[in-house]
Backbone:
């Protein structure tokens, strides 16, 4: 058995969709733009079998945050596109709010590793 640990960064260009249904309308929100920044890591053991073949088992985790910059709101036949940012207009009125969407997961991974 060989124990190991790994750590890395995540950079991505994600998008997300949310659908809400009411008694007479369907609203679809599609978020896009912005970059996702996060991390991934794990700790586990590698069990060599023979030659280039091994089995691994690890505890893995990921986490990150994303701030989309655009949202498209489609309610029925009406579509509205909005640029999201935390900003004020010339009259010092609040314009829009850019959300920060966090995510994360933790789990156990197992598999076969083949070195070529």
Residues:
């Amino acid at each position: 058995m060989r124990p190991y640990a790994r750590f890395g960064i995540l950079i991505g260009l994600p998008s997300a969709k949310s659908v809400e249904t009411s008694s007479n309308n369907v609203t679809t929100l599609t978020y896009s733009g912005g970059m996702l920044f996060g991390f991934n890591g794990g700790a586990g053991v590698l069990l060599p079998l023979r030659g280039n073949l091994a089995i691994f088992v690890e505890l893995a985790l990921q986490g990150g945050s994303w701030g989309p910059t655009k949202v498209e709101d489609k309610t029925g036949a009406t579509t509205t596109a909005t640029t999201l940012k935390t900003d004020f207009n010339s009259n010092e009125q609040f314009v829009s709010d850019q959300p920060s969407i966090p995510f994360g997961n933790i789990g156990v991974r197992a598999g076969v590793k083949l070195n070529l």
